[in-house]
Amino acid sequence: MLRVFIIFCFSLYIANASEFHRSISSSPNRINPLLATDSASSAIADWLFDGLVKFDKNAKIVPALAKSWKFENNTTLIFKLRDNVKWHDGVKFSAKDVLYTYNLLNSKKITTPYSSDFKEVKSVSLIDDYTLKVVYKKPYFKALSIWMMGILPKHLWEKEKNPMQSKLNKFAIGTGPYKMTKAFEVNKKIELVANKDYFEGAPKIDKIIYHYVGDPSTEFLMLKAKQLDIGGLSPLQVNRQLNKDFKQNFNIYERASNGYTYMGLNLRKAPFNNPKVREAIALAINKQELIDLLFFSHGKKCYGPFMPGTNAYPKDLKPLHYNPKKAKEILKSLGYTKEHPLSFTITTNTGNDIRVKAVEIIQQQLLKVGVKAKIRVMEWQAFLNTVVFPRNFDAVVLGWSLGLIPDAYSIWHSDGDKKGGFNFVGYHNKKVDNLIVKAKSEIDSKKFGKIYQEIFKTIVNDHPYIFLYIPNSITAVSKKVKGVEPSIIGIEHNFIHWEIRD
User: Fold this and answer.
1) Between vectors from CA 444 to CA 442 and to CA 449, what angle results, nearest 5°?
2) CATH 3.40.190.10 in the chain, residues?
3) pLDDT tens figures, 199-228
4) Is the confidence at residue 5, as pLDDT, over 80?
5) d(Cα 48, Cα 61) in Å, to the nearest integer?
6) Residue 4 — pLDDT band, cuts 50, 70, 90?
7) Sign of CA dihedral 362, 364, 367, 371
8) Distances (CA, A) of 348 to 159, 320, 326, 353, 364
9) Distance CA 69, CA 67 (A)
10) Integer angstrom CA distances of residue 131 from 57, 140, 257
11) Any idea what DSSP says for residue 163?
């Protein structure tokens, strides 16, 4: 009788186990935080692995596997690690795992772009099983944030002769809130189960199921059919394709995405080497019209190179607003007339319909102030190899991603104006160069933010780019899911506290 009762209770638990269904557009390559360079691999690895620190909902760095830290001086960082963390196989986590991960990252056994983040680290050593000492070659603004990298279990990985081809890249063992039950298979669904021993508390949702979905339209159909509990939406879908039933079953969350679109001007050549010409073009472009026409108003005006809401974004910013009358006055003062108008070519790439439409709208906006812009659209690789990198353009329309901790060096420092560099508009400003270098050695986040706010305002006043728009990221989440808290870093920062209630 007791056996029957136990079986009944187990069956009841299985029946009541909560499942969260979502899509993945491609199969992971390697579920390993050191090797996950594609979005699918990173998406899965983020559930399985923890770093020493992480971002909270306000984009502030807070403890994760580390319970605390302190800077002994501006080049020495001491981490105190948690002593209550277990790997998914039950073995205890310790500082030895962190040291092993760091050594593997910098070894010849693996090839990974993430090792560049650690180039300023001089040494990592153990003080005891739960205390770690990191010494930097010089003060480094990423001294803390680089340790968001996921940590690997030494007791498993030290046995692997070829980490790049290890079976542990398919069946990963971490410390994270979810764990795998079997190795993933290409183009098959992936199931993750809650780690009941997770050091921050067991997740309330028992299982995450990733369904392989090859295209966004299929994902949308599955979302409408309630086969998925979360999914991204396009502005067109939000405005034109959501019925009453969808809105009754899903909450819609909207925030600025982590990327912006801009028009970069070639500062090496006339007329763009004249800052007044750049200002006139900036005044002639109606950013709100671009957002309204391209995204059905689901977007925000972009005023500069760093993410709004972070400490790098100046609160006292006085942005330049759309003013075609003033644009005409400036152009007239520079000698441009109907008979001799300002004219140039805007180049962008195929494969991005939104970007091409944006250029067409800009062309019409510029025409209203007497500027004649021609449009050139090219295949992506040809665009990069014959236009962007050789600096063979008047103006280009492109986009950059936005990070919570910006690094302006590659795009905005004069050193980036070289073959293969990302400062391809040829922006040179000694003040900005000095501030960027100063910020790289600032370990105090508030002081770092103030420096970057000054960089932001200086760049904006120079108009090397016409900063255009930041599209909104729109996400639908089933109303069965409770506990969602939107934030600057996205809605899933507190996923372990989400729960499903029918």
Assistant:
1) 80
2) 18-210+480-500
3) 999 999 999 999 999 888 999 999 999 999
4) no
5) 20
6) very low
7) positive
8) 49, 24, 27, 10, 16
9) 7
10) 27, 21, 37
11) G
Question: Options 3.40.50.12280, 3.30.230.10, 3.40.50.720, 3.40.190.10; which CATH number does 18-210+480-500 get?
Answer: 3.40.190.10
For the stretch 237-244, contacts whose Cβ atoms lie closer than 8 Å and that sit 24 or more positions apart, written own/partner, are 238/296, 238/298, 238/474, 239/296, 239/298
Q: Which one-letter amino acid corresponds to residue 188?
A: K
Closest CA to 239 of 477, 474, 484, 462: 474
Q: Given this model, what pLDDT does residue 15 score?
A: 45
The pLDDT value recorded for residue 12 is 40
Q: How many Cα atoms occupy the beta-carbon half-sphere of 221 within 13 Å?
A: 6
Domain with CATH 3.10.105.10 in the chain: 259-472
Place of tokens 């006339």: 270
pLDDT for 59 = 93
Query: What's the whole-model pTM score?
Result: 0.91
> What are the pLDDT digits (tens) for 349-367?
999 999 999 999 999 999 9
Fold of 259-472: Dipeptide-binding Protein; domain 3 (3.10.105)
Instruction: Return phi, psi of residue 450, to 5°.
Output: -65, -40
- How many other CB atoms are found less than 10 A from the CB of residue 383? 21
